[in-house]
Amino acid sequence: MRIIVAKTAGFCMGVRRAMDILLDAANEKNDGKVYTDGPLIHNPQVLEYLEKRDIHVVNGKADLSKSTVVIRAHGITPARQKEIEGMGAKVCDATCPHVMRVQSIIKKYAAQGYSTVIVGDKGHAEVIGLLGYTEGKGYVVQELDEIEHLPPMDKVCVVAQTTQDSRIFKEAIDRLKKRYSSCESFETICSSTYKRQDEVISLSKSVDAMVVVGGRGSANTTRLVKICESQGTPTFHVETDTELEPDKFKDFDTIGVTAGASTPNWMIKRVVEKIRSYKVNRYEKFLFGLKSIASFLVGSCTYIGLGAASLCYANTVLIGIQPRLSFCLIAALFIFSMQVLNHFANKEAVVLNEPARAKFYERKQHLFVGLGAVGAVASFILGFALSKSIFFCIFLASLFGIFYRLEIIPKNLSKIIRYRSLEQIPGSKEIFYSIAWGVSTALIPFLSTRESFIPSLAVAIAFACGIAFIRAVVLDIRDIQGDRILGKETIPIAIGKERTKTILIILTASVAVLLFVSSFIGWTTTLGYYLLPCVAYAFGYQYLFQKQIVSEGLLLETIADFNFIFAGIIAFVWKSSHF
Predict the structure, then answer these.
(1) pTM of the model
(2) Active site includes 126?
(3) Is residue 509 part of a domain?
(4) By three-state DSSP, how is residue 149 classified?
(5) What distance in Å separates the CA atoms of residue 228 and residue 197, rounded to the nearest whole number?
(6) Residue 4 lies in a domain
(7) Comparing 431 with 44, which gets the higher pLDDT?
(8) Which of 141, 173, 189 is the last residue of a domain?
(9) CB contact set of 314 (below 8 Å; sequence gap of 6+)
(10) Residue 7 within a domain
């Protein structure tokens, strides 16, 4: 079965902006609660996560004094905004800029005596908000036949709900201009809606069936369903993957998948993954088998453990130490156990960002908790067998990992000190992750030499930390949507994606310069020159990700983690040719 996912599927700009404003308000709150005036988006699953973060929808009983009320992307009437402010609440306006433009058009022409006709859904939050700007002279047209029943009007201003079907809006304009001699029309359907609808029309014509993912209360999602159905394509509207029924897809070879503007990426991923498992031919079974193997290696953290062993081998050669299997095993076991236990400590994030992996861990929970613990203990035993200094290094690193998540600062001091644990500090996750790689793949092997500090150790640690940091931040950019909903402050969230990408480019270039210079002046072995392709590789997968050539979770992670293995392969070839 072939699955084609629409490029425009998922959060639109307005929804994404509203979500960012809401989450920023939630992070900055002091004593007052954070509310949204109506559901932020028409997606029950996202609203459930927001409720867990103590972000609620305003109801009649809520005391809004000293609270923050976020106006959702649909916008509200001026009267409603004054009412909220009158209750003593601080208002954060997250109205979509496209909706603001429609509001300003209506306001301008209403002041000039125009009556307003809004082509949209009666009772929709955006339409109700727009009516508030018409000075009592506004009419809503949901069905084209309703135009004939409109009253006589001298001057008419015609606008559309920003997510309206473009074909219906064009027809409505033609009919209104025939009926009213003084009729001004404005193109107010947002560009992302146009793109989404055009792509859906094109996709519907090229597939056997369409699946539309999104809340049933979402107007733009249900509109996409109608557009697909209008093309004569069998269409299935689902909110979650649990609503999919295998029997309904058995006669289809090519399935198109799209989603409404308020559907998060992880829900689309779940639907796609479930449909993929329904019907496969022999060739697809072979590919599915390969993917299953790759999924197991990556999902079980075996792949990243192999990467740690390979990078450890490369760093020992870079420093000038004789590689030993025990060094590589310690690195592999330590990183393996750290990754596995981190997945369980961050269950909610894994569920949102990597749904397939979450299901995998749920099925094998006891096995992987056991393997994580065994990996940690085995690394202690191996470290103790080599030297006490290595043992204490591993022990301290593990102890730090435990304290990383503990809330050290008492709750009553949270007004003075915002962050109660190291985990809550923006960017701490990526920094400590990269330090763990530097310690396990460079410092621990060096401690066995009993030598004093040498420059090559600093270079090896910087190399390991650098490529591990790049890998962690790229995956954080991928997972930014889910992390923001959960309240995690990763580097991309703290400083923005564009600044983060700039930092990654600078860091990648810096690691390249360090390797070249250190080899040139003799701080390290000449392996430094040969490890430059690893830096180029890191830049390469960043580029592929930024251009969305590679963005799918498993593939991106497989490519990113191969850089560690690549370093080990280069070191092995270099060492074989020099001895």
Answers:
(1) 0.74
(2) yes
(3) yes
(4) helix
(5) 9
(6) no
(7) 431
(8) 189
(9) 441, 527, 531, 567, 568, 570, 571
(10) no
